Every structure is written in C-alpha cells, then in structure tokens.
Amino acid sequence: MPLVSCPDCAREHSDAASACPQCGRPNSAVAVMDRPAIPVVSIAPGPRSAHACPKCGSENARKLSLVFRDGMQMTQSATGGVIVGRGGVAGVGALSAGTAQSLSSASAAPPVQKKVNGFLVAMLALGTFMVIACLGNGSPGWALIGLLMTIPGGMSIYNTSKWNKEQYPGLYAHWDATFQCDRCEFRYVPAA
Fold first, then answer.
1. Which of 11, 41, 127, 169 could join 22 via S-S bond, C-beta 3.0 to 4.6 A?
2. Residue 152: enclosing H or E segment and its boundaries?
3. Which of 13-27, 32-46, 67-81, 107-121 bottoms out in mean pLDDT, i.e. has the lowest?
4. How do the residues of the chain divide into helix, strand and coil, expressed in percent and rounded to 5?
C-alpha cells in the first residue's frame, strides 16, 4: 500500500484509508463505496386484546371480581396443649378464624344490596299491632296513630325491595363486566 500525503495537514497515510487519521479529511484516492440503505420497515402494532386498557394500552388487566377475590384471605388456626400440675392434668385448646382483605380488594368490592332499616320495621310491626288492637276495642284515635306509624316502615320496605329488584342487578352486572388495569389502575368495561 503506497502512502499518500494529506493536502491539509501534510501527514502521510495509507491510500486505502478512507480519511486522514490526523485531521479527518476524506481521502480522495479511495472510492466511496455505495452502501445499500437499510430498509426501514414500519411494523404495525399487533392486534390489541379486547381487554387491553384503553388508557395505557397494557394487556395486564383483570376483572374486578378477580381483583376482589384475590385480595381476600381466609385464615383459620387451632392450637392445643396439656397442662400438668399438682392438681392433675388439664387439656386446653383454642380455635381462631378470620378474614384479611387488601386495600385493592376492598376498593374492588361488588355493590351490595340495600338493607331495610330495622327501626322502621319495628315501627311497622308496632303500628300494625296498634291498629289491630285499637280497632278491636273501639279506640279509633290510637288506631290512627298506629296507622301513621306503619307508613314510614312500609315505605322503607317497599323502596328498599324495589331498589334491590330494579337497580341492584344492573349495578352488579356492570361491576361484573368491569376490568381494572394492573399498570395504571384504570377501570373500564371493554367494548363488545
């Protein structure tokens, strides 16, 4: 390999070098080879799962019912022993049971049905008893008071049972269809 002199810095270098090692001037003696361009292929993202999070796109999403169930832990333990002393022998034992729940499980709890107010049910029962007893012995004033006592209890039972029958099933179905993203905790119902 013959040496050539760089026109800029006058340093000699190989004619096979693409540039002067001293100053970096391209060597005119070397033919620049055309390199094939690296093809850029745009890859379309793969099909997203129907359950992918619409907010962050994560595929790590679970139904709220699973989040709720996975965060519940039932515990039960039993222990026992024998005590020996001057007075004799005695056996002892204990049984304990409980439930532990994570915060994420508590926040993913299903909707609950409404309960009837116990005080209003007691008023309904007492008012009904007063109406029956007072009409039988000829006390219409007390019967009217008893009738007025039955109205709040009756309305409470009616409204609660109506809500549990009409509203609760829809709320529960919505909860059962809802997913929660494990990455961003966004809750959503996947498009059908």
1. 11
2. helix 140-166
3. 32-46
4. 35, 25, 40
